[in-house]
Amino acid sequence: SSEKRLHFCLLISLSTSCDPIYCPWEQAQGATMTIDEIRDNFALLDDWDDRYRYVIELGRTLDPMPEAEHSAANKVQGCASQVWLAKQIDRGDGDEPLLNYRGDSDAHIVRGLIAILLTLYSGHTPQQILGTDAIAVFDEFGFREHLTPQRSNGLRAMVERIRSDAREALAAAS
What we know:
This protein has 8 helices and 2 strands, in the order H-H-H-E-E-H-H-H-H-H. It has a two-stranded antiparallel ribbon. The termini are far apart. It is mainly alpha-helical.
């Protein structure tokens, strides 16, 4: 249907009235959500408490990161929470490298931000990554006004790490 109602499937529901539920993150199990789907779901939510819950649920869709990847090399500096981004470079159909990521954090909201970030960047070429302004997307969602300065700095550090990886992959390919 063209109009979807969004409710949260949380273990602890704050709402007493819940009709049949549509859960975008369940839809994402086994299939990658697009940034447009996340944008559409976000637009359905007027209340920032609900938006935060949605972001946390997105974080729960992240593939588990093996303990070995929780390394100093994968740790993102500049984040108040602990954040790890593990990069794998694959070759696409041609010779262009594709950067794939796994991410994790000890903070639920940050795991959700990572999920959004990986939706934008993971599985893309260095040129696509460098041509995507993740901060503008997060601003469009309203995060600039709703994240603490420390979280905003951490988000910028994650974006810069991925963009730096893209620049390195481009340099190595030429």
